């Protein structure tokens, strides 16, 4: 089917954030499963706005799929799309963009991917990034595989095709044992819904109960909430769950390892109304703000969040410090979609189109601005200018994560290392560059305390992946090393 003209759906004014690259969702045991998946993906849209896809299975119609550029609500609410996806079993995927085709996604790169095997078809949707995908792809092509996309995730389908195992779950185990890096996967056969997390559990995946007969898998609990599913538990790091005939069977395909969940999910990626490790993300972010207030106090009149992601941390900072909280900056929620293809003139207006300062509140005040992170620093500089233009007496930045000095290779879009402000400047140099009265980041230990590790970071066995702050990669990014990336010890 031909595609409608492609709209730019990522926010064209927001290139100064790390971006989670995918959200995944699956459901079984419910009539019109595609509708449930569309809702689940809609709730996960913050994890990827570029494109989405759904695959379903219905015994008389077989497998059906639809993949589209754009937002879920613009594609998968329409009867001419959703009506072509019958069945009680479905999986779906939303993406920003994954390895291989950043910024140039083609429809063939949009997941779920589908493979026809001797024992029947299977579809998979992957969140994360395979760090040895280049080597795997080379090997698979040499052995005759014909790739359809530029996505690292397609390697999983080809590895499954080469396995000699007799069932799809066993073939998946074979395939995923060859894969390095971060992966949460939802997959389906004609009868099974399957969920897997990599041995370190870098990316999230949760299991939910839908009514009395159905099951759902979702990147985050907010995907379960929207369809009225009850949270059952997180799929554990290194676990594969196979759901069939209302039964969930747990498998352990990998050697047991200490988990290293992405600590940035707590800081920024996950929705604040989701829960991680049994605790609301909102609560954790507020605790991060409180910790930041203890570590980096400053005399001021107001604590203001950089909306929206800085809000819970700003509330925590305000409560801990006793300095009043105020919405000194207001976000125009509809900005990204209003100017689908911004002209140069509009682009130059930059952040002003998206954020506006509440002058009456700010004028003459010493303002603490709380943000989740500083990546390139371009937006932080513009926000500081706006706040000073509005008459602020002082501007102090407080950042709810440590300096982001290293790129992520586990399914998050990060600029190259030299583009990260913290990779080339000290904290004082960054303060000068941003032109603020003070700049402080939460320490890595403080962040660990705020996410529930009372003793801070255990340097010998950290409980989380924190590579973008520490430069210590829990899985060696072998493709990147081959391309010349220098690990911390080799710098
Ligand atoms: S490098 Fe950073 S963003 Fe990437 S998985 Fe690790 S903690 Fe998360």
Q: What's the SSE blueprint?
A:
Elements: E1 19-20, E2 22-28, H1 33-43, E3 51-58, E4 62-69, H2 72-75, H3 79-82, E5 89-95, E6 113-117, E7 120-130, H4 133-142, H5 154-162, H6 168-178, E8 181-188, E9 193-197, E10 206-210, E11 214-218, H7 221-226, E12 230-234, E13 240-244, E14 247-251, E15 261-262, H8 263-269, E16 275-276, E17 279-280, H9 281-295, E18 302-305, H10 311-321, E19 329-331, H11 335-338, H12 344-349, E20 355-357, H13 359-362, E21 366-371, H14 378-389, E22 394-399, E23 412-413, H15 421-424, H16 427-434, E24 438-441, H17 444-450, E25 464-465, H18 467-470, H19 478-482
Parallel strand pairs: 15-25, 18-21, 21-22, 22-24
Antiparallel strand pairs: 1-23, 2-5, 2-11, 3-4, 3-5, 6-7, 7-8, 8-9, 9-13, 10-11, 10-12, 13-14, 16-17, 19-20
Helix pairs in contact: 5-6, 9-10, 9-17
The structure holds iron/sulfur cluster.
Iron/sulfur cluster binds next to helix 8 and helix 18.
Structure description:
This protein has 491 residues and is of the alpha+beta class. It contains 19 helices and 25 strands. Helix 5 packs across helix 6, helix 9 (281-295) packs across helix 10 and helix 9 crosses helix 17. It starts with 18 loop residues before the first strand and ends in a 9-residue tail after the last helix. Bound molecules: iron/sulfur cluster (SF4). Iron/sulfur cluster binds next to helix 8 and helix 18. Iron/sulfur cluster is lined by residues 202, 262-264, 408, 410, 412, 465-468.
């Amino acid at each position: 089917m031909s595609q409608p003209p492609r709209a730019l759906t990522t926010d064209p004014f927001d290139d100064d954030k790390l971006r989670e690259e995918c959200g995944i969702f699956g459901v079984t045991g419910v009539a019109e499963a595609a509708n449930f998946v569309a809702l689940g993906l809609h709730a996960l849209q913050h994890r990827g706005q570029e494109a989405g896809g759904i695959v379903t299975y219905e015994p008389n119609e077989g497998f059906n799929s639809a993949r589209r550029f754009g937002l879920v609500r613009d594609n998968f609410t329409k009867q001419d799309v959703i009506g072509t996806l019958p069945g009680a079993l479905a999986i779906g995927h939303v993406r920003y963009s994954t390895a291989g085709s950043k910024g140039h996604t083609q429809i063939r790169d949009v997941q779920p991917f589908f493979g026809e095997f001797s024992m029947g078809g299977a579809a998979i949707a992957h969140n994360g990034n395979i760090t040895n995908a280049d080597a795997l792809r080379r090997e698979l092509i040499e052995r005759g595989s014909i790739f359809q996309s530029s996505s690292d995730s397609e390697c999983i389908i080809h590895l499954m095709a080469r396995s000699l195992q007799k069932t799809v779950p066993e073939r998946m185990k074979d395939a995923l044992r060859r894969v390095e890096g971060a992966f949460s996967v939802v997959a389906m056969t004609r009868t099974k819904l399957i969920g897997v997390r990599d041995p370190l559990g870098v990316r999230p995946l949760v299991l939910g109960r839908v009514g009395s007969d159905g099951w759902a898998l979702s990147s985050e609990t907010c995907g379960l909430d929207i369809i009225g599913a009850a949270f059952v538990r997180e799929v554990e790091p290194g676990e594969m769950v196979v759901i069939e005939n209302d039964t969930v069977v747990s498998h352990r395909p990998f050697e047991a390892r200490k988990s290293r969940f992405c600590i940035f999910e707590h800081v920024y990626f996950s929705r604040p109304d989701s829960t991680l490790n049994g605790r609301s993300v909102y609560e954790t972010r507020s605790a991060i703000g409180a910790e930041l207030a203890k570590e980096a106090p400053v005399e001021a009149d107001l604590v203001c969040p950089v909306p929206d992601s800085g809000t819970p941390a700003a509330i925590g900072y305000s409560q801990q410090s006793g300095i009043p909280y105020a919405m000194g900056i207001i976000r125009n929620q509809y900005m990204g979609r209003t100017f689908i293809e911004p002209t140069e003139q509009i682009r130059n207006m930059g952040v002003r189109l998206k954020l506006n300062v509440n002058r009456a509140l700010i004028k003459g005040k010493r303002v603490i601005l709380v943000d989740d992170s500083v990546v390139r620093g371009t937006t932080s500089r513009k926000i500081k200018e706006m706040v000073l233009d509005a008459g602020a007496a002082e501007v102090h930045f407080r950042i709810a994560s440590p300096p982001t000095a290293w790129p992520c290779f586990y399914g998050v879009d990060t600029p190259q290392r030299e583009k990260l402000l913290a990779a080339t400047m000290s904290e004082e140099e960054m303060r000068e560059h941003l032109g603020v009265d003070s700049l402080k980041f939460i320490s890595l230990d403080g962040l660990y305390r705020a996410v529930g590790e009372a003793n801070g970071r255990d340097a010998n066995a950290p409980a989380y992946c924190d590579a973008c702050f520490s430069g210590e990669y829990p899985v060696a990014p072998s493709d990147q090393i081959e391309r010349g990336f220098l690990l911390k010890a080799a710098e």
